[in-house]
Amino acid sequence: MNARSPAALVEPIASRKSAAALARLAGVPCPDFLLVLVDAQLHLLNLYRLPRAGEGVQNFPLGAAVRLAIEAQAEGMIVIQEREADPVPRRPDLELTSSLQRALEETGIGLVDHLLVCGELITSAGGLSLPKTALRKTGSP
User: Fold this and answer.
1) How many CA atoms lie within 13 A of 52 on its CB side?
2) How far apart are CA 84 and CA 112, in angstroms?
3) Is the pTM of this model over 0.85?
4) Predicted confidence (pLDDT) per residue in 70-119, tens digit
5) How many CA atoms lie within 13 A of 39 on its CB side?
6) CA distances (Å), 97 to each of 7, 11, 34, in order?
7) Nearest-5° angle of CA 46, CA 104, CA 137?
8) Which residues pair with 79 in a beta bridge?
């Protein structure tokens, strides 16, 4: 997908449900992550499938995710994990959310959400939420 194609900028990602639907449409297998990069109005810029080797922050390609966000000139990032069972966040999910927030703070890119998707159930690791209007960058009032 072209990062700035007109079709990619038509609809904002306005809810957790629509973000989770992106993961299903992209056919992301359960062990992998879907990295969703958005602009300040939550318009989709690009999607990436990031493989992982297991649970925990050490198995998430943090450097690659941040690099992709910078290259796309993204202002926000959503990380989506498909789960086969229970979507309740566990310690590795919370550690990943914290690591993402710390890494992105240095770039000015906001972590919009880290979603865990299990069937129709969707939860947020770390209690983040999708803003209803524009994304506020780190450090903005």
Assistant:
1) 26
2) 23
3) no
4) 999 999 999 988 777 778 888 888 888 999 999 998 899 999 888 888 77
5) 12
6) 30, 26, 14
7) 80
8) 35, 114
